[in-house]
Specification:
Blueprint lengths: L2 H81 L3 H83 L3 H13 L5 E5 L2 E2 L8 H9 L4 E2 L6 E4 L3
Parallel strand pairs: 1-4
Antiparallel strand pairs: 1-2, 3-4
Helix pairs in contact: 1-2
Bound molecules: zinc ion.
The site of zinc ion has 8 residues, from loops.
Length: about 240
């Protein structure tokens, strides 16, 4: 194999690994955001359940106050009843007091309903808090894992980039330019094998002279169709 091609193949192998590492590093922020979202979601859910609990409690307090006000009202009516001598007025006050009693009954029924709701809400808050604790633990674990992964990838990338510089140093500048252009424009395959007289990049049949030049390996030969650099792959 032509020495230039041999060197370029090493370069291409490193460039592919560099490209793959960069792609992996590029998704890291998305992975991190996924973890953050998980935690934010669990926190918001817990807060929402707690808020619902507080609202039930506020409503219950309000009913309690309403009932107390009605009882005070009944006491007032009873007081007034003691002071009146008119039968009609006495009856009217009795009716008012009875109406208040009936209203208190309704309020107390609603209070009971709310107490049941409060119990259920307490359970929902408990569930949400457990979910939040799990999300926190998962977040901590996975964040650390992600940090370690990113760090490892960056170390590999630095190593590979150093190796790449080393292997590029020995290659003719024009040839390196051509390679770089092809690598960027031909989906990471600047140099491909010729097998059964077909280009390994574009899969088109090559002319006999191109095949012969590739086989002879005296100069760098390009595909007649896609322009990729070729080496002879048939044994
Ligand atoms: Zn081709």
């Amino acid at each position: 194999m032509l020495k230039d091609i041999e060197n370029l193949l090493i370069l291409q192998d490193r460039d592919r690994k560099i490209r793959a590492l960069k792609a992996e590093l590029k998704v890291a922020p998305t992975e991190r955001k996924g973890l953050e979202d998980l935690l934010t979601g669990a926190t918001a859910k817990t807060e929402a359940e707690k808020q619902k609990g507080r609202e039930i409690e506020v409503e219950r307090k309000k009913l309690e106050n309403d009932a107390r006000a009605k009882r005070d009202q009944i006491a007032k009516y009873n007081q007034q009843k003691l002071q009146t001598r008119k039968n009609e007025e006495y009856q009217a006050l009795t009716n008012e007091a009875n109406r208040c009693e009936a209203e208190i009954q309704g309020i107390e029924d609603r209070e009971l309903g709310l107490m049941e709701q409060a119990e259920q809400q307490k359970a929902a808050v408990g569930d949400a808090e457990r979910g939040l604790a799990e999300a926190k633990a998962l977040h901590a674990r996975q964040s650390q894992h992600l940090d370690e992964k990113i760090q490892a990838l960056q170390v590999q990338l630095t190593d590979l980039e150093a190796q790449r510089s080393g292997s590029a140093a020995g290659i003719d500048e024009d040839l390196l330019d051509t390679y770089n252009r092809l690598f960027a424009s031909k989906h990471d395959s600047a140099i491909v094998a010729v097998e059964h007289e077909v280009c390994g990049g574009c899969h088109m049949k090559l002319t006999p002279s191109t095949v012969a030049k590739t086989k002879a390996a005296k100069t760098v030969t390009h595909c007649d169709h896609c322009g990729r650099m070729l080496y002879y792959g048939d044994v």
